[in-house]
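User: Could you go from structure to sequence for me? I need the amino acid at each position, not a summary. Structure tokens:
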């Protein structure tokens, strides 16, 4: 434990804590509604939306896990770069329409939209269940990222993690989405400084990128599981389907949808779809850290998640290690907070209010959501403290598969009601079953499932194909039979509204 490193780290963490609690004084809520607590009144402009979306999509675990994958598996880790490029044109087209109808109807969750569009409580429950199941292990992995940094700093045991968790839970409970939005500005600034510095300082210390790539490739080729800095042809399908499936799923996680719905206008959503690729450049630099750790001969003792922290400890001066570690740990606070809020919204709006207390008041909904956000984060902490890490990793792998199965309901609903609600529900159920079965077949140890020896792909995308085929076939049959598809509670004009209109 280095005194200078720890001092800088503690000062920056204390600064973020003050900002998180100060959020109550910033843009004071106009009411006690869940709109104010969970979506900050839907008033974030381009600046704060950009930081908030970047903050909850590019998480601490991203900064730990992507280089760790490059450290152990080579080129495959770079699937994260094209998928964050592919996703933004898709978002530019789809999500402004979604934002418009959510604004016009006061929807707080994607499940609210699905219920209103297809007049189906069952579909709304399916979206809520998928979102909560996908979010819980995701929060746990943010805490894993925090624990990794605390371990690298020299802190042992779970007490520092519990303290950081308690602070996070407190300002999330008090201030809702305003807290992570303010913290995200500091977090992303520190991350950019850290990565730019790493891309300048570390290659200089290691003899340049040519030496880094040559050394990393040599080590990977002679490892226990041989890999390379170049993608093997047999992994082309796996790489492409993982990138495509991850791109489609990314913005349908509840925390991403929450960030989108907090935007001030549909133009804000469009501008962020144009500006967010700047984070893709950052992500490419982050992935390269895995190769740098190989070239620096970092010994992780079987835990690849330590590759980046140990690289920073070796190559940076002690004070800047404090900055870098604070950036990564704060990078866990923002997404964990937004994820807890998003899961609480789904439970409160689409389970508690829908099935338990249907006549609850807006203020009561807010109180329930606040309490559930605490329970969600406590559950994530129990995951980290009481359950083996591998189990959280298995659930996170399943989370991506599961969240993909909500895409036909949401994207399809944004553009058409041709899909029949019964077909969508059965398609979702079979997609969930198929994806889970494929993951079971590979022991939950991989995202890939081989349809044949030569066709290996992302299990989530294969499951989505099953979902879509079933949904389309059943919709053809049910529509032809004129089976009721419920009443559409939205109007065509809702999809074009803007806050300024």
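Assistant: Here is the amino acid at each position, in order:
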């Amino acid at each position: 434990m280095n005194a200078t490193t720890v001092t800088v780290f503690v000062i920056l963490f204390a600064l973020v804590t003050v900002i998180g609690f100060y959020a109550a004084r910033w843009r004071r809520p106009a009411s006690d509604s869940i709109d104010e607590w969970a979506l900050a009144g839907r008033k974030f402009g381009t600046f704060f939306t950009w930081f908030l979306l970047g903050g909850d999509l590019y998480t601490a675990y991203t900064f730990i896990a992507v280089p760790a994958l490059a450290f152990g598996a080579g080129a495959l880790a770079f699937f994260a770069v094209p998928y964050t490029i592919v996703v933004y044109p898709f978002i530019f087209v789809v999500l402004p329409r979604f934002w418009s109808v959510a604004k016009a109807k006061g929807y707080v969750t994607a499940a609210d939209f699905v219920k209103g569009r297809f007049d189906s409580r069952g579909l709304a429950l399916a979206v809520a269940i998928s979102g909560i199941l996908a979010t819980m292990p995701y929060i746990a992995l943010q805490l894993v990222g925090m624990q990794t940094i605390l371990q690298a700093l020299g802190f042992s045991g779970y007490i520092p993690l519990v303290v950081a968790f308690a602070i996070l839970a407190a300002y999330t409970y008090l201030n809702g989405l305003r807290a992570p939005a303010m913290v995200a500005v500091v977090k992303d600034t520190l991350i950019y400084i850290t990565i730019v510095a790493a891309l300048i300082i570390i290659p200089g210390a290691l003899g340049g990128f040519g030496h880094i790539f040559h050394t990393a490739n040599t080590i990977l080729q002679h490892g226990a599981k041989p890999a390379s800095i170049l993608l093997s042809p047999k992994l082309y399908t796996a790489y492409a389907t993982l990138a495509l499936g991850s791109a489609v799923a990314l913005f349908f996680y509840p925390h991403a949808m929450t960030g989108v719905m907090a935007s001030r206008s549909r133009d804000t959503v469009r501008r962020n779809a144009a500006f967010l690729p700047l984070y893709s450049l950052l992500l490419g630099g982050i992935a390269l850290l895995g190769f740098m750790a190989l070239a620096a001969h970092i010994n992780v003792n079987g835990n690849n998640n330590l590759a980046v922290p140990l690289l920073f400890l070796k190559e940076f001066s002690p004070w800047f290690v404090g900055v870098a570690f604070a950036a990564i740990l704060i990078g866990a606070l923002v997404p964990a907070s937004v994820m807890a809020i998003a899961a609480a919204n789904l439970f409160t709006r689409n389970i508690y209010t829908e099935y338990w207390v249907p006549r609850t008041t807006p203020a009561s909904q807010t109180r329930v959501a606040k309490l559930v956000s605490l329970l969600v984060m406590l559950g994530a902490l129990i995951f980290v403290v009481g359950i083996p890490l591998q189990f959280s990793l298995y659930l996170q792998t399943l989370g991506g598969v599961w969240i993909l199965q909500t895409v036909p309901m949401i994207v399809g609903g944004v553009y058409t009601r041709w899909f029949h609600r019964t077909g969508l529900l059965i398609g979702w159920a079979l997609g969930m079953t198929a994806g889970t079965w494929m993951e079971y077949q590979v022991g939950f140890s991989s995202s890939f499932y081989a349809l044949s020896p030569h066709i290996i792909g992302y299990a989530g995308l294969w499951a989505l194909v099953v979902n879509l085929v079933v949904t389309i076939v059943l919709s053809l049959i049910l529509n032809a039979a004129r089976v009721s598809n419920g009443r559409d509670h939205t109007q065509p004009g809702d999809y074009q509204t803007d806050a300024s209109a």
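One structural detail worth keeping in mind: The chain has a mean pLDDT of 89.
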